[in-house]
Amino acid sequence: MSDTPSKVTPLKRKSLWASNLITLVFLGIFLLVCFGIELLVKPVFSPVGLLVTGAVMSLVPAILWLAFFYRQDRLEPEPKEMVLEVFILGGLLAAAIGIPLVNNLFNISSWLFSGFWVNLLGAILVIGFSQEFLKYAAVRFSIYESSEFDERTDGIIYATAAGLGFATVLNISFVVSSGGVNLGMGAVRIVLTALAQASFAGITGYFLGKDKLDHKPAWWVPVGISLAAVLNGVFNYLWGVLKRTGITTTGGVLGAWGGLVLAILISVTVTVILSWLIERDMEQELQLLGGLK
Amino acid sequence: MTTSTRPMQNVSPSTISVWIVSAITILALLFGMDLKNMVENQTHSLAYAGLTAQIPAGWIVQKGIAGEQTVFVASDPFGTDLSYTTSLVPSSADIKLSDLAFTFNLQRGQEVTLFRTLDQSTVKVNGNDVLRVHYAYVDPKSQTDLPVVVEGIEYIFLSQPKALIVSMEDETSQFTNDLPSFMRFLGTVYYPAGGNQ
Fold first, then answer.
1. B65 - beta bridge partners?
2. With CB atoms counted within 10 Å of each terminal CB, which end of chain A scores lower, N or C?
């Protein structure tokens, strides 16, 4: 850290915007490639091919979003292997607990779509709280106690990594269980699910970061998780409406674009707020460092 | 007094917050389970052709199909292949349960693709000897590229002048999950001419 904060920040901020733009361009290319393959090739998958396609389709957006969030932490980037470990932990928790809990124990497909309030409440109580708790657990019971978790921003970085690991497994499960998706619309769903899971986890991560570094009261993190769970539930409610009336598991688009737009709006808004929070916390850290000098 | 409060003073707010988060999550899931049970237990009565049953709320019901042998088919609007079917077929004193099952299996074998009987056994339902047939076939209406296997379970109640058949069909991946709801439905089916059930 030989540069003074005032010299380093504007330059890096400019390059950050450029790299964020590149991430979005790559995601756009990924979507175009998927739509292109679907239109030109119309692939039919063998069981192994389906699994490989599901894994590739789920990993590409997850890696791109992971890079997007990772680059926000430009003050003292976290060790990549630790971020990767939390990513894998998030995925393992999704596979071992998250998916079986929601699909088997609660069997949500058989009752969740019975009406507006049931759908919304069920999405928040069952999907929202279970998923956000598992992503919280992936951070709280692993990296949180480590000395590497030494900035407020770290909470967001590790939690989004857990969220993206979680989303990757959800997306692989979606592709495999639906027996092959329409690649184009499947890719839209995968990109959006990854962003949503990352951004909602990021909320919990923000509260965790503040909790560790600022020694917040005991109610602080529960409020953060509850907020993330409610947003996750609302997102899933909109997504559920969309699935039933529009984009089916086979990917056919029949309408209900309002749900998709609202779901995108929630995820993007949360992501923008998280980026702003990271930016603000880093400014504070830099001011603190400048003050110390 | 001082010694008894000391352990609590050592617990950090961070640890307490872990307990609170865990408690909130458990409470949310318990409320979620209550909501699930409430929705699943919501039913409405259906009476048709002398037969009554409690159908899950919101399900689509088709009455009187295939020359009135099928009394009704109730299907879940959001479950792709989930449906309950009740039928009344002519019966007499010299007809055995296995004869009826053989006829149905033969009929299905001609109508659907790759029909298989997975299990066939006599069980007791409300004190009656009932034949339970567990079967599977490939869904001919499947919209996906890969074939979808449908699993079915059928309970045949022998009575005169008509035998009652109550069955559930579902996509194989959901079959086990949806079976308990079907068993609750089976308990509500009442056909006076056919005895207790």
1. B70
2. C
Q: Which residues contact B158 (CB under 8 A, 6 or more apart)?
A: B91, B95, B96, B97, B100, B129, B130, B131
Chain-centroid distance, C-alpha B172: 13
Q: Which residues are within 8 A (CB) of B38 and not within 5 positions of it... i.e. 6 or more apart?
A: none
DSSP label of B122:
E
Cα separation, B63 vs B69, whole angstroms:
10
d(CA B189, CA B128): 14
Distance from CA of A3 to the nearest CA of B (A): 35
Of B35, B79, B177, the CB nearest to A122: B35
What value does the CA radius of gyration of chain B take, rounded to a whole number of Å?
24
Rounded-to-integer distance, Cα B81 and Cα B174, Å: 9
What does each C-alpha distance from A12 to A26, A279, B192 come to in angstroms?
A: 21, 12, 81
Interface size between A and B, measured as CB pairs under 8 A: 107
Residues from chain B contacting residue A250 (CB–CB below 8 Å): 143-144
Pick the residue from chain A with its C-alpha nearest to B81: A110
Spatial separation of the C-alpha atoms in residues A78 and A239, rounded to whole Å: 33
What is the distance between the alpha carbons of residues B95 and B104, in angstroms, rounded to a whole number? 13
Q: How far apart are CA A115 and CA B182, in angstroms?
A: 21
Within 8 A of B40 by CB-CB distance, chain A residues are 110-111
Angle at A125 (CA atoms; ends A121, A129), nearest 5 degrees: 145
> pTM here?
0.73
Cβ neighbours, 10 Å, residue B11: 11
- What are residue B128's phi and psi, to 5 degrees? -95, 145
Q: What is the mean pLDDT of each run of 10 residues along chain B (197 residues)?
A: 54 90 97 91 83 84 73 79 87 80 83 86 83 88 71 88 89 86 88 56
Alpha helices in B43-96 (DSSP H): none
* ipTM surpasses cut 0.90: no
**Beta pairing, strands B113-125 & B83-90:** unpaired
pLDDT digits (tens, 9 = 90+) for A19-49: 777 888 888 888 888 888 878 877 777 777 7
> Which residues neighbour B10 within 8 Å (Cβ) at sequence distance 6 or greater?
none
Q: How far apart are CA B40 and CA B140, in angstroms?
A: 29
CA distance B174 to chain A (A): 9
